[in-house]
Every structure is written in C-alpha cells, then in structure tokens.
Write a structure and sequence with these properties.
nine-stranded mixed beta sheet, six-stranded antiparallel beta sheet
Length: 560
C-alpha cells in the first residue's frame, strides 16, 4: 500500500493514500490533492498508479516538479522514500508492508466499562435504624436540604442543556418558560421580546403549570412600571405582594391582575436587552424566596445568552447565504468588493461587458457511450476547473448550459481589462484541456475539445427571473453574438469579434478570418481567431473601419 506523506510550508503534515489510477495535484478545487499555495499551479501534476509502480508527471505547471533535488520534465517512476517538491509542498512516497501490521484487542478496565455502559452503582443511604436517635432529626434536615439543592441544580442543568441546543428564537422562548415553570411556586409565565430600540416586539403565549387552570385565571397585564424598571436597571426583581410593594404603588395594572407574588428577569445579550422573562403566583403572598429568584435569574441569563447566540447565528446565516449566492457566480475578489460596497447595484444596469461561451464538442455523442456516473464525473471536474480559470481572471460565472459554460467579464464590476481577461481565460482553458487529455486514457475518460466564442458590447446586467427564482445574468445582442461565435468555433478554436479585438491592442496573436453571417444579425460579423499556441504568430493589424457585409461568407457549420 503506497501513500504520500505531505509537508506544507507552515510545517503541518498530512497523509494521502494512493488508491486511484490517476491522482491530480494542484491549487484548484477540482484536484484530488489540493495544495493551496500560490507556488502551486491550478493543475500542477499527476500521480499515477500502474500495476505495482508509482509515477509522477508535470502537467504544464509554472514551477515544475523537483524529484530528489532534480527537476524532471518527463513522467518518472518513484521509489520508496523519494521526495517530490510541488511548489513549497514536500511529498514523500512511503510504501507500507501490510504483512508487518499486527492488530490486537486492547485492555479495557472494568471501571471504564461501567462508565461507558452507564452501569452506575446507586448510593446507599443509611436507614434510620442504623443511626442514633439523636441524629435522626439532623439527618432528615440534611436529606431535605440535599434534595432541594439537587432539585435546583437539576433545573439549572436542564436549562443549560435545553437552551444550548436551540437556535430558533421561538423554540428558546417556549423552552425557557417551560423551565421557569419547574421552579417551585410558579403558576404561569411568559417571555416578552424587545426590538433593538427597546420597544416591545412580541410576546409568547402564557404557559401554565396546570393547563386546566388557564381559563379561570385573569389575564396577565404587565405594567409599564415593571417594563421601565427592567429597561433601566436590567436586574431581576422579586415582587412579594403587589399591594405592599411601594415600587409598584402606582401600577393599576398589577393590582387589577390580582397577583400576589411575581418574578421578572432581563434576557440580556452581550450588547443589548432582548426582553424579559416573567412568572407569577396569584394566591401566595410570598411564594418565592431569594433562592428561587437566584435560580430564576440564572435561567433567564442562560436564555439571554441563547437568544444572543440565535440572533448572531441567524445574522451569520443570512450573510453566509448572501455571500454563497454571490460566490456562485462571482470571483472571490469581486465578492469581497460587493460585500464591502453595498451600493454596488445588482439590479438592471446597461453596461459594456465581454461575454465568453465555451462548449465541449461532440459531448452528446461521447456521453451516449459512457455510464451516467462517468458523465457526471467528467462534467463536474471540467466545470470546476473552468470555473477556477474564470474566477482567477476576475470573471463572473453566468451559467452552465448542458456541457457549455457562459462567463461575463465587466459585470457587476469592471476591472478595465475585461476583454483581455476573457481571452486569457479562453487560452488557459484550451491549454488546460491539453494537460487533462494526457491522462484521459488512464482515467477512462474521453478526450475533450472545446470551441470558444467571445464578444464585447453593451448588455443589460442584473437579477433576472421570477420572484421564486432570480439569477444574476446579462442579456442583449452582445450575448447572442458571443454564442453564435462559439457555435462556429471548432474544437480547440477561440473566435473573437472585432469589438473584442479592438480592446486587446497587440497583446495577443490574432488571425483575421472571413466575416461570418450569423443568425439574428443583419450584417456579417468580422471575426478573428486567437493563436493560443505557446509560440505565437505575428500579430495582424486590425482594420480601423468595419468592412461592409457584401460578399461575406456564410456561417460555417461545425460538429457540436
């Protein structure tokens, strides 16, 4: 069994079992071994298993492969202990002899066995006959005190366990009232929540210890004096008898409600008051002691922390959802710009963009000869790698259309070099496919060839769709023309419109082709092919004026 011992630049180590015929290595997320460092290319190398041998091969990386301090240019066999440098990562091959591995049953102490199986022995309390008569009374007092302490601790334990497991505000409110009703003397209770300005936002239903008494008891009318005290002091209060409590002598609502004893505690978060927890007893004038108030206040404190956590979690979830929606089609740096500048409009905006379409040629025929799972595997890796290329060049992923990809450069944010970024992406995609196709046979994949069309022009960019589903996209003639160019591009070819070529200057080697008469355009489209080979041909001059459509060649039909 072969494996790689991986050492990262920051000193961390990892292990990768070699269990596939071809293992891809690189910075991109589509690789089997992702090495996230700028010194590693998106698709850097492959590790191959052939019979009982392991091979390494470079796949057009920028920094190459170093094997045992020697740079290699061809596929090379590895032996046990060989060290491969991929950028700043160190990969050491280790061949394990499984025959030397022994497995034995570990010793399990009986005490741990009892704990793991929850076989707790119950403590034996002394019987009264075993205790001297003079100590019976003291023992009874101690037992009663222990029982009460145990009861209060149980309430606190259940409060912590229950509230920490809730993330929905409604569930927390229901749970904290249920826990408060466990405190001795509590007959009913509810939660009142405040908004960020301190105004009452909503109130939970009143919960009764005895649900059958709900109809016979008067309605709870919480006075403004209690609310004002909670907002001002943010401390728990104990009301033993409303008629005798001078703090609420002016509270008509408390006297009307008929309560004799009540407790009220703030639901405090780290930065603000979320509301109050209220319980009462209508019959006993001193139903609650300081001991019950302490437990009640702790339950409220735990509830406040749980609400704070729930609100923070909801806020993070919303931000994460918004970011995830943006990350679906925007490059990471563009996402950061949009998040940092909320004024950037994602609505309908007419702006100049460069649109790129890339389509796999003859993929429908290929897929008919492959298992469905293999078709999905091929498309997923292809789309992942192509999306990485688009994002690396600052583009926006518009959509996947079957086996085609549509990308936009210049929306929602233009970097000023959108046409060049689109062409760079197209060139990198074509070169990427050359490297992927090297290992196609070993992976039982078909060799892929892609035709690409690019056009620059005005388009409407924004969230388009129905209220149930919106997608950020661009629409307009510039988009349609790019798609027509892609249709006419042969596998391995990049066709660009004159509008894109004019933006490039002399940065790329271009070959002028006969004009194309494309569907939906009254005039023929001047077209250029990008020479993306490693050794580029001389750049041709781009005419200053568009030639008339007279004598234009018809749209060429190529296999798709």
């Amino acid at each position: 069994m072969a494996r790689l011992i991986i050492s990262s630049p920051d000193g961390k180590n990892g292990i990768l079992e070699l269990n596939k015929p071809v293992i891809t290595v690189g910075r991109g997320n589509a690789n089997d071994l992702v090495l996230n460092d700028s010194s590693v290319s998106r698709f850097h190398a492959v590790i191959k298993l052939r019979e009982n041998s392991v091979f390494v091969a470079d796949r057009g990386s920028t920094n190459g492969i170093v094997l045992n301090d020697n740079k290699i240019s061809q596929e090379t066999e590895l032996t046990d202990g060989d060290v491969v440098l991929v950028g700043q990562y160190r990969l050491r091959l280790e061949n394990l002899n499984e025959n030397g591995i022994q497995v034995r049953r570990g010793e399990w102490p009986s005490t741990l066995d009892h704990i793991m199986r929850s076989r707790h022995e119950q403590a034996v309390l002394p019987r009264s006959g075993d205790v001297p008569s003079s100590g019976v009374t003291d023992l009874a007092v101690r037992v009663k005190k222990l029982e009460r302490e145990n009861y209060l601790l149980t309430v606190l334990y259940e409060a912590g366990k229950a509230l920490n497991s809730k993330l929905a505000l409604e569930h927390i409110c229901d749970q904290v009232v249920a826990l408060a009703c466990l405190i001795e003397g509590v007959e009913r209770g509810f939660v009142m929540l405040f908004n960020e300005q301190g105004a009452v936002m909503r109130q939970s239903e009143v919960r009764y210890r005895d649900p059958g008494s709900a109809g016979s008891n008067p309605q709870i009318i919480l006075s403004q004096s209690v609310l004002e005290m909670m907002r001002r002091e943010k401390q728990p209060i104990l009301i033993e008898d409303v008629r005798a409590d001078e703090r609420f002598s002016g509270s008509e609502s408390l006297r009307i409600s008929g309560l004799r004893s009540a407790m009220c505690a703030p639901l405090m978060g780290n930065e603000r008051l979320f509301g109050i927890l209220y319980v009462d007893n209508l019959e006993k004038p001193a139903a609650f002691t300081q001991e019950e108030l302490n437990v009640f206040a702790l339950v409220a404190a735990q509830a406040g922390a749980a609400i704070d956590n729930a609100v923070a979690h909801e806020k993070i979830a919303q931000q994460s959802l918004q970011r995830s929606a943006l990350e679906r089609f925007l490059a990471p740096e563009v996402v950061e710009m949009v998040v940092a500048n909320p004024d950037i409009r994602l609505g309908g905006v007419n702006q100049e963009v460069t649109v790129m379409f890339a389509d796999i040629r003859d993929f429908t025929a290929m897929s008919e000869e492959m298992e469905p799972a293999r078709v999905v595997e091929v498309l997923n890796e292809y789309f992942t790698r192509v999306t990485d290329v688009i994002f690396d060049n600052g583009g926006t992923l518009d959509k996947y259309i079957g086996d085609a990809v549509m990308a936009v450069f210049g929306a929602p944010i233009s970097k000023g070099n959108d046409a060049a970024s689109a062409v760079n992406s197209a060139i990198q995609i074509q070169r990427l496919l050359i490297e992927l196709n090297r290992d196609a046979a070993a992976r039982d994949w078909p060799e892929l060839r892609v035709g690409i069309g690019i056009n620059t022009g005005s388009a409407i960019a924004g969230n388009i769709g129905s209220p149930r589903r919106l997608d950020y996209t661009v629409v307009g003639d510039a988009v349609n023309t790019a798609q027509r160019l892609m249709t006419n591009a042969a596998g391995g070819q990049i066709l660009i419109a004159e509008s894109t070529a004019r933006k490039l200057g002399k940065k790329f080697a271009l070959e002028q082709l006969p004009e194309l008469k494309v569907k939906g355009r009254s005039e023929a489209v001047p077209v250029f092919a990008v020479d993306w080979a490693e050794k580029s041909a001389p750049t041709v001059a781009i005419p200053k004026k568009r030639r008339p459509a007279r004598g234009a060649t018809q749209s060429r039909k190529t296999p798709t």
